[in-house]
Design a protein that fits this description.
By secondary structure, this protein is of the alpha/beta class. It contains 15 helices and 18 strands. Helix content is 35%, strand content 20%. It is globular, with a radius of gyration of 23 Å. Bound molecules: L-Fuculose open form. InterPro entries: Fuc_iso_dom3_sf, Fuc_isomerase_C, Fucose_isomerase, Fucose_isomerase_N/cen_sf.
Amino acid sequence: MTYLLPAPTARPASAPKTAYLIASGDLRESANVGGWPVQAAMEADVIAALADLGWTVIRAHDVDPATGHGFISSQRMGLEVFKNIPTDAPLIVAEAVWQYSHHVLAGLRTHEGPILTVANFAGDWPGLVGLLGLNAGLTKMDKPYATIWSVDFTDDWFKAGLKEWTETGVITHDASHVRALPTLPDSPEKQLGEALAAQLLADKAIIGVFDEGCMGMYNAIFDDELLNHTGIYKERLSQSALYAEMLEVTDAEADAAYDWLIDAGMTFVYGEDAATELTREQVQWQLKMYIAALRISDDFGLDAVGIQYQQGLKDLVPASDLAEGILNSTERPPVFSRDGQRELFAGRAFPHFNEADEGVAVDALVTDRVWTAMGLVPDNTLHDVRWGEDYDGQFVWVYEISGSVPASHLGGWQNAQGWRQGHVFFPAGGATINGVSKPGEVVLSRVFIADGILQADIFRASVIELPEEETERRKQATNPEWPIAHVVLHGVSRDQFMARHKANHAQLVYAPDAETADKALIAKAAMFAGMGIQVNLVGDVTV
Ligand SMILES: C[C@H](O)[C@@H](O)[C@@H](O)C(=O)CO
């Protein structure tokens, strides 16, 4: 018997001083088309910088005349593109937009040549967010890569880094700001963190995930075999069930939640045209989602919940952000059981992890428990690490999540404005919780997978106030409909942060003052460590 054996795919041979370039994109064609001009300009800059070093760049996939953009827009397309790349060729992944990492991770996993990820340090599209998400995915996969970024690709730091990559396949970054958590001296905070960890390990907790794997964020999927050792288990839920539950919520119940928000001072910027403007009907669906999410959380005895939204639900109902920000707020409209007899999770925030990011789930749950036990307001949120620039001699980050923060971060519901989500990302609209995060002392963190284990980076920062014109400039330079925080990291430079951070998100929680923030950080670090998570202190941290 003879069988017809598949012939191995013929790939081109690599050539000296020649790199291939690919660009991972969004699944939403509106975002790919919108972001393409910025991507094309960035790629030209990168190619010019390599030409100065005597290198040639071959783009491994063309601009598609049908769509008008040159992004890899699905995992399948990624597989096809990789068939045209020599397995040992130097490979550049260039990103000026938010991208779905899984479009390219399959190809990158088996690529044998040196890999460089590069982004423009710019705010107009979430390219830095995309870069950080991709790097975190590669880190989780244990795949070596080099990474770099630049405002205009002409600065000496960028040029030196690029040269190093062409010569060695790596780029060395300064990691002197990171240290392992030392043995903590005994303190009430250490004891609290350890006791909370022991309780979690013994009694266990459940995070409810409405559809895992949002927007290609491989880094945000935590394998059960790693997660369960921390005491946390997943309840896998379907967004279809959430939608079905939303249909059961009455208008009167959603109206009551709306009236609560209005009484608390929230305002909404309404228009007429639902295709591009916010309508009361969109908000009604968002409030039904809020109520439905809490009812399902009650049904399953959840300790935290995450809604993916961005695939599936985005074509069905308005954005999840309003519901998410309300859930993460201690002060929120009451929600009752279906029979109206019991108020659900009364008097407390219910931790929600946006974009079903399971690193955020672990962090939100821990933060909620530590801050609550210390008598502090536990309201916490993820932010996209979006961009930043110097202001008045210090680097001020733009932390900006795509739609929601707890209202307390804005100083209260009276400072929260519902703006319509942009139609490029959110066709069905819905209100954001827009505003400017109040100045104050914060603890930042990120739980991530590296070296095959769960790790947590934990660091201190201040949210500062900037003049109104500067805030407005930063909002207009990014997405003005999204809430912004002006973040100054303690003892961490821009490039140290970019090189080290292994996620597109960072978790942020306030403390009333610096001393309390330092103490709460210790309790949080002790709890993470007690859960078996490797803790790293980043920047100036007092322990
Ligand atoms: C709408 C956009 O895709 C955003 O959702 C994206 O930038 C992220 O939030 C990624 O974390």
